Amino acid sequence: MSEFKVAIQGIPGSFHHQVALRYFGNDAELLTFNTFEPVAKAVAMGEAKFGVMAIENSIAGAILPNYDLIDRYELNIRDEYYLPIAHQFMALPGQKIEDIHSVASHPMALLQCKTFLAKYPHIIQKEDIDTASVAKRISEQKLKGTAAIASEIAAEIYGLEILAKDIQTVKDNFTRFIILQKEKTETLYTANKASFKITIKNQAGGLAKLLTMLFEKGLDLSKIQSIPVIDKPWEYAFFMDAEFKNYASFQEAMELCQLNFGEVKIFGEYLSRKQ
Questions:
Q1: Which of 3, 24, 197, 246 lies in the 20 to 30 Å Cα band around 31?
Q2: Residue 225: which CATH number?
Q3: How far apart are CA 191 and CA 194, in angstroms?
Q4: Model-level pTM?
């Protein structure tokens, strides 16, 4: 039995399940949840030592609500993991695509496969909580005429037949996952990437000045997402991911942000895993 628990969204066969096993090993003890918020809560409450959470996809973009969960539950980013995503169209054995009248999967998976699905307008698309959960339900309930979009591993686990392989629109499809923990991560002077939030004061040209300063300090922003600050009209918080070559320059940039632009909250400093 593993000495620690890892919280994930999804069941065996899901992409989160794959990341957890690849990152922590096959002996990792997993806590599975249907949605992302219980994952964040489990880590925050100490029920799980770590959490695995998808944060963006190379096709569908950022999962903005997950940035809010990290912030609200006071979580810290330990690391990141890029998983190549290949979607399979699967159903009970012995069926053909012409026999399928509906397909269900996670909304992100449906979005990533929209070009393939457009070829079959007779197939009704249904959003579900998780890719593997649909595969499991089809298997357990012997649902004919219903397909799932999930991983090859999910097809193997739940005994489904793959009717069409690698149906994602863009074949070079990756999802970026983050590894979360409650404890603040130790300062990693070899870090070359950071995730942070800046709440900008309400001033003309504030964002432009901020971005210019970050650029001058050598920060390459790979992600920027804005959300309004509910209790402060016309003020915005910006979630950012930035890569850098000089850690001291990053620290200086964060100090200047705090001094001149607004509140700064650093979620994690780590090594970029992007290939």
A1: 197
A2: 3.30.70.260
A3: 8
A4: 0.86
Instruction: Indicate the residue type of 123.
Output: I
Question: 188 in a domain, yes or no?
Answer: no
Comparing CA positions, the residue from 226, 228, 241, 230 lying closest to residue 274 is 241
For 49-76, write each residue's pLDDT tens digit: 999 999 998 877 788 889 889 999 999 9
Asked if residue 256 and residue 197 are part of one domain, the reply reads yes
DSSP symbols for 108-171: HHHHHTHHHHTT-TTSEEEE-S-HHHHHHHHHHHT-TTEEEEE-HHHHHHHTPEEEES---SSS
| Domain end marker among 153, 181, 209 | 181
Per residue in 85-142, pLDDT (tens digit) is 999 999 999 999 999 999 999 998 999 999 999 999 999 999 998 899 999 999 999 9
Number of domains, the chain: 3
Domain that holds residue 112: 88-164
Q: How many CA atoms lie within 13 A of 68 on its CB side?
A: 10
For the record, the structure tokens of 20 come out as: 């957890």
H or E stretch including 40? helix 36-44
Report the alpha-carbon distance of residue 173 to residue 99 in Å, rounded: 28
Positive or negative torsion for Cα 187, 189, 194, 199: positive
CA 210, CA 199: separation in Å to the nearest integer? 11
211 within some domain: yes
